[in-house]
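Help wanted!
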Amino acid sequence: MKKTLILSTALAGFAFAAQADVTVMSWGGAYGEAQNEAHVKPWSAATGHAAIMVDSDNPAPAIKAMVEAGNVTVDVASVEYADAIRLCDEGILEPIDAASLPPAPDGTPATEDFLPGAITECGVSTDIWSNVFAYDTTKFPEGPKTAADFFDLEKFPGKRGLRKGAKAVLEFALLGDGVPAAEVYDLLRTPEGVDRAFAKLDTIKSQVVWWEAGSQAPQLLADGEVAMTTAYNGRIFAAVVNEGKPFQIVWDGQIYENEMYVVPKGAPNKDLAMDFIRYATSTEGLRAQAQHISYGPARRSSMKEELIFKDGKTVMAPHLPTAPENMGNALETSADFWVDYDAELNERFQAWLTR
Amino acid sequence: MAEVAGELLTTADGRPLKAALQAAQARARRRAFLLVLPLLLFVLLTFLVPIGYMLKRSFEHDGFASSAPALVAWFAENPDFDPANPPEEAFAALVSDLARMQVEKTTGVAGTRINYSVPGTISLFKGGARVAADLQPPYKEALLAVDPAWGRPALWRGMESASHVYTPEFYLVASDHKLTDAGWARGAENERIYLYLFGKTFLVSALITLICLALAFPVAHLLATLPLAKSSLLMILVLLPFWTSLLVRTTSWIVLLQEQGVVNNVLVALGLIDNSGRLAMMYNMTGTVVAMTHVLLPFMILPLYSVMRVIPPSYARAARSLGATSWTTFRRVYLPQTLPGIAAGSLLVFILAVGYYITPALVGGADGQLISNLIAFHMSKSNWSLAAAIAAMLLVSILLLYWLYDRLIGIDRLKFG
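Answered by r_m:
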């Protein structure tokens, strides 16, 4: 088991190496599908270069394994913001020249068109996604409204779904405990703050069903296994729009972050990979992705015209984490914080979980 | 006789018989070796080399040692320095290394390595490296002015420890130790996890082995004694799940046992339990034990069956005719003969259970996690050395158990069929 894990991580995507000019690694599911339809296929059609999409549970450890093993088979990967920064610091990623990114149609340079923080040394944002919580409207006609309600077992009895891991869970616990978004990370840097977050989680621990894969959250909700669950907002949106599920997202206490396209060091087709990223993160590229899944584009110019879902009727704006009405009590994930405390807090979280 | 001994025996073509025999035997040995060579290479490449690499990895990490040469040299010269108050030369070495890291872009690698034992150091290194080139002596005051955390004794202890490429540090972490300002110490009660999970993993595996044995024994006996037509049918029932994908079987148990699942629905419909009192049989230890027992059951049934099949029924009949009760017959005559099968099945099930990963991950919820889930967790967090250290500890404890088993029962008594 131990060694197959190492090997399979290192060899992931190996079989696809020879066939494509550009290999993009993403998260699979509705999300991978959206990037495939909005970026991979159109780029391939526009440039005539073969491009394929491969899936991973989490591309970051996979590309790290590839670079360390000296056998890189992926040209572009879609990773979480903190990973884009950490891997860049570790020399795993190629720097991306922000000045080479295409300007907005009105000529605004990319560096000004992108939202703050959406371009880093080695990554360019493909979208802004969010950790939210959602409930079944048939169970609670007068549903929960705030993050505090998620932790209120008396007012809203029933099981809770939470992602198994410290990230976004500890922040959510503090938000649910009434801590203002601006103070969450300062508090979490102190031992008292961490204790307070775990104490809040203790109040619902016996009622929690933990999920790991993004698709599990809407599944638990659909099965009636949980009364409400945290989830990636796009997955709930997909369940509502594509399958007509009676789910409602609560945006209060949402925790959002950028998802980044990166190029691993030693990518077989680095120049084409950069061209792919320029294409995918253009105004039109980001727009196209937001028409497939409800994650917000990180360019202001992509939002100028109204975004319509691929079904031709659903207006995307109110479903995006970046919509002003959804940003009332919102927290941006602090990559700096998680780069430092990921290992420690996850260990503590695991210890807390098993006791 | 003496004449014969003095005279060399030769083959028809005049070669000494002894040499000819040796040549022939050597040829046979070479041929045999060539025949097993593919398997040998296969085992070497896919089994021994990765395990060796894993063991090496559990001791080795050069993330800091390779990116901070000045400090490594200083630590080597001053092994007895005071971590609470490192001298100016140490800070000078650190600052020159930080400047170098900034140029070579190794801040993250070095910071990540120290961060394993001293949380919060990645951004400390980044912040330090960014300004290092502009710092002026005295470096100690300059760096402490950038961030007082540079003076933490734990940080200096961590850097000293990380300056060695080979370190037992990961084994310390894997046995619930933490690096504090005063040195390595056992972690706080609410932070200890690895040894607890080791114990839990072995207990749960033993429990699963016992349940498997209790369930498999009658089935195997039935299989071995029924007429062929019926026993083949029964055998298919045993083998069918064995041939089914592990994931499918695990997911089926989720469907059956979850709170809104089949079993709970039936119990509620029968009025045995209240709708509000649905049993929690999934996403906890119960779910893990039930699903793993089901998945591992064939590994117990098959060795038992192969042993029971060849036990002549006449022994039991003889015992009965000599006046033994059916219990005595079972205990004194039948059971001892099945021991090799019990031993083989138990060992197989136990060792498989100890390393089980996917089933606890899917159905274990919070308290049904086993040690291999933590190995996977650290793999996914890219802390391979810690994952390797835990895995090595698991490997060694299984080898120990195997040795104990050999001493108590004897490996030669194993019988898989």
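OP: Thanks! One thing I noticed: Chain A touches chain B at residues 1-3, 5-7, 9, 57-58, 60-61, 64, 86-91, 159, 164, 205, 208-210, 212, 223-225, 336, 339-344, 346-348, 350-355 (CB under 8 Å).
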